[in-house]
Write a structure and sequence with these properties.
The chain is built from nine helices and no strands. It is mainly α. The protein has one domain. Helix 6 packs antiparallel against helix 8. The longest helix has 26 residues. The C terminus is likely disordered.
Length: about 150
Amino acid sequence: MYTHIYIYICTIPDTLQQLVHSSALSYIDQQITKAYLPVVAQRLNMKINLTQNFTTMVTGHGNIKTYLYRFKVIETPTCPCGNMDQTVDHLLFECELLKKERDSLISAASKSDGWPISKYTLISKHYKSFVRFMDQVSFDKLNESIIPRI
């Protein structure tokens, strides 16, 4: 006995495109976190205070424009500074709106390491300075002009 499976040809490209897009985004998310915490065993030995800002910066999830744009919550991923898309790297290394906060982080990290610094070194050797940087960032204030209030 044969079972007939009908596949509508017009749905294949959309389904395949969604699968590829979903897989690519999942890979990107994993790479962001892996840059900070490449070895799970080391992460388990670290005392990390998980805050909303920490999670946003280490995973790329949360109140960050590229993440919100990905889910069509906002119309553009461009940072309010106007220079680039608002990504974790942009906020950490380039955003002019966070220059004062970043300068403090650079000052602390540069005492023993150069800048720019790897995210792993940042979190493993300069955790307190990194947390101070993140605590000074107000994602709500930074993005208040672009996030629709529901």
